[in-house]
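Tokens for Reverse transcriptase domain-containing protein. Go.
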Amino acid sequence: MAEASFRLPPPLKMSEDNLADQFRKWKSQLEIYLEASGTNNKPPKTQSAIILHCAGAEAIEVFEQIDFADGEDRSDPTQVLGKLQQYCSPRNNEVLERYRFWNLPFCTPFDKFATELKAQSEKCNFLEKDMMIRDKIIFAVPKHLKERLLREPEITLKRTIDICQAYEQTANNLKEMKQEDKIEKVMKTGFKKPTGKPFRQYEGTRRFNTRPGSANKDRECRYCGKKHTFNKEECPAWGKTCNHCGGKNHFKIKCKKIHCLTEEMDSDNEAWLNAIGDGKKRATACLKVNNCEVRFQLDTAADVNTIQQRFVKKEQVTKSDQTLVMWNGTKMRPLGETKLQVLNEKTGQTLPVKFTVVKNNLNCLLSLTTCQDLSLVTINHEKLIAQTTEEPGTLGTASLKVDPDIKPQILPCRKVPFALEKKVEEELNSLMNRGILQRVTEPSDWVSQMAIVEKKNGSLRICIDPRPLNKALKREHYKLPTLDDVLPKFREAKIFTKLDVKEAFWHIKLDEEASMLTTMITPFGRVRWTRLPFGLNVSSEIFQRHLTTAIDDLPGIVNVADDLLVIGNGSTDEEAQRDHDRKYKLLKMRCSEKGIKLNQDKAREKQKEVIFMGHKISDKGIEPDEQKVEAIKKMQTPKDVHDVRRFCGMVQYLAKFLDKLSDRLQPLRELTKKDTQFSWSSECETAFNEIKNLIAKTPVLRFYDPNKPLEVQVDSSKDGLGACLMQDGQPIEFASRTLTETEQRWAQIEKEMLAVVFGLERFDQYTFGRKIFVTTDHKPLETIIRKPLSEAPRRLQRLIMRSNRYAFELTWAKGSSLLIADTLSRAAICNIASSEPGLTKETETKERSNIPDAMLEKLRAQTSEDDDMQVLIDIIKRGWPEEKSELPPSARPYFDFATQ
């Protein structure tokens, strides 16, 4: 038989987990066999028999149990295959197959990954199969390759596969070509160049140096560790396999994967050694260590000091878990670490220095900090900053978008006082010479007016008055960082450097169209801004986005607006100093790279405490700016209600630092109520003085630690809500608010649940996404929150559902142990306007309404006489039901407006 000369396909394994995929592969092999063996030309009954024979015993047993309907033929090969396929693939679950497609992990080689994707896509019924495969490849490949693919303007599946294949092939070729060179270069560090070329491994063969005069010299072999002439016949490692890496022609004792710089990537304790390697010009110093003269290389880019093991006694070395990162990015494990006395004989200075011990083939290095401590190097930081402040920086280009429905405006020129005309002209010429302003001669749709601001030093600042333009500009709505956003970064912070971006907005260039929008009229002609001007309502967001993009990946750098703060973290001052210097150096390098200019006059370097965003930051925590506190303490006694409101507004700044403020403010808050006659009583005077004394003893809040348990203490009184965020029994932040008139009529358990929701939502940045412990003094709340939601009253149901966004555990404690939350709940902290949006809208409507009083009285009277309105008022007071059908027929038309 002809088919006997062809190998049969393997039997169909009916017990496989993925039987459908198994059948698909088996069927492909079967069809090839049938075609090659000529079976397709045989009678149908013979074809069916051969198919079942190829399928195997398990498949035959299954086939015998399959029912055939009337009219179906068991001897038809097409129906035989169809029945087997129907059994193996009963139903294609499209959703499941697509889930498997999108979760298919990336693997190498790339061709294997692409093949698996294509095979899986056949089961997914994609309308745009090529597009789906292309997207999956881009989503799954490594980051550097993903960036390359995303740079393509219009990329097809074929182009995607071509790029990935070329990238993988290039990477493999480079790895093969450069791996040996990379190892050889690193190993040369610290060695004296040999007279003859050493033998090396290349493409599976060994080449020995046969230069005259070198072959007969006995030297230590780099492949076996013994001394012999450089002939492969003499090397015992020739032809042997390494017990460490499995490579050929070397022993484990000389394996490069042990003794060369390793590529470990899992170390969290890395130190950079920028100068280890070959260099033509090196700054060195000869110092005494252990009564030996040691020549150190001064490496201002290194994070640690290194010393060769020959200068250190064995008993002086302790174990180290540090990883050293070399100048070329590779890594190595040191032999240990030690602390030795170092003597600078020129100055007579002796200093204990911590060293990392390395092998004798590497250089002895001193880091920047040690060089400074030994008076070997002096760094003038002021000069470094001054070099970056000569011209405006460059952080990119921005566009401005305007609302086309708003008509452009052309405003007339403002008059300039005669005494300032010359100074204004000089300042305008200066800005044009620097390229910040440019003359305009062509027509422009928008013409704004010029604004002049006189600085404290008498110089002028030229600005644009863009009020009409601001109404037309479309904002980016980029989130501006706040102090609360960056507070967690200050944990273990001890050293600070505060920097200011000079002429911050001018770092952003405007494109041609945006520049024309900023045209302004001056007494000396029209000019337009080529850089982002101050005054635009979009300037802050545009600048913040560009600056954040430029420095966001730098560790320990906090940026809010145009302020930069370098933070040195560490458990000791020495550790924090090293951490600070490393981060500061990285920031200055980035500023130089990105063209960010710093203000020398405002630089405050290596401070123990700094004023940042209106607060004093130190290793003790966060406190309000003493100047603002002092201003509040020195305020004179209020003379009218406006003075009271001004005082309350100033004190509001300290809300998060004062845990008993609301009680003292109660008499003053009464004076600010509408229709209340101003009368400064002794009670008000006492409250006023108590608040000032309380400010003088402002507590210091602790920094939030994401690794410690977090507690929210909450409480509700008849008038307000209080909440305190705490860790280890110390407050992180306080919050309180008054209850609306409607909320004051709620049951106490509802108020207490409202306090829980208020605390969780008020501290959302801390409480969301982690486990929280909420403490209340209301025992019934602990019970009802554990019951099914359907068993709670409707208002409580809504509050509990709001709290379900958070993973919290509610516990009960005596009220005496919740003093902070209890005090805060007594009243809002000088917040006269309610936090309820609905009440705010109602108040605004009344203030802006022009309805005569007589008409309002008539509306009130008719409302009180209308039965439907009385039913509606009662529903509003009690609360709206969940379903419209639960309302009386007369109130149902208003259900859609229940939340308004």
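The chain has a mean pLDDT of 77.
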